[in-house]
Every structure is written in structure tokens, then in C-alpha cells.
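pasting for the record
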Amino acid sequence: MTSFLTPIFLIVFDDLKFIKSLGLLLIIIVVGVSFSYFKPADFLGRMDNYFLNRYIPYPEASLEYGLLNEEYLRLPKENEMRPKSNYPTVFPENSRVKEVINLNSLDSLIKIESEEEFLLNYNKYNFPGWVAEVDNKKIEIQNGKPFSQIQVMLPAGIYNLHIYFKETFFRGLMNIVSLVSFLGVLIFLLRLYLSKNKL
């Protein structure tokens, strides 16, 4: 609705003398009318514990968490069940994993030392965009059971496993399309403004 009405308002109000004052007034009205929505505890009567109990399985999953069927978080289609506890970055823990360095909330560097190949689970849902590399060489990511977590089969040896997230080709392409569209509209409005001022 906003996308539809905004251009109409621009056309209708374009010639008004007090357009800047009207815009400022509209901003004040919008903030004033919707101010109560910025306090969900007052509006819904729900404090932080309500959301923590339903959506965060820490230190252990509550009964409410296990029974919740709301689509609060979209899960991968291969997911069979929601985790019942807050798992560590890498599980199950074993002596082959020498160190886990969380570079940020999405990227991790894992130091491995193993005499045989083994299966490693990484505590993130396997959505498109995840990449796993053993010493800068890509390896295949599998869907782990039952959570559809990231799972990789690792070879024997001493090496670094790097797991990180990056945009897929399609999402990257759509980002470029969005940026080009935004710049195109900006240039169009700038040229329109300059042509009006020349007259």
C-alpha cells in the first residue's frame, strides 16, 4: 500500500508551497500514532521471559518450546525435529577437534587432528550459501539428521576446517539488480529536479 500511495502523494503534493512542513508533520504524526508499538511489553503484556521460554532452548528446552508449532523460524525442509538443547558450535565433541575459533556469528575456523576420517556436525541449519573448506579446498556439505544441521565428512590428517556463509549467485545477482534499480531511480529523480529548476 505504501509503495502504491507514495508516488501518488508525490504527484498531488508536488506543487504545494508548504510541502517540507507537511512532510515533517506527517513524520511526527506517524511516530506519535505508532509509538506504543515500540513497547511490546506494554502492548502485548509479554516480557522477555515469554519469548526466551518459547524460542530459546537454554539452558534446556522447555515444554512450551517442544510443543510450539508457530513458524517463527523457517526450518530447512529436511528438518525432522527442533533441537532440544543449545548445542556447542561443533558436536559431538571429540578429541579430534583441537580448537574452534568463532571468527564471527557465521564463520568458524576449526583445527582438526585425526588419524581417520570422521563425521562432524556444525551447529547451523544447512541453508543455501554455506561453504566448507579444508585448507582452502572446498568439501561437500551434507544435511545432518535430525536437525538438518551442517554435516561434513572429514579426512584423516592435521588441517584447518573453515566453515563460512556467503551469498549464493542468485541472491548476489538480485542484490546487484536492487542496487542498479535504486541508483536508476535516484538519477531519474535528480534529473527531474534539475530540469524543473532550469525552467
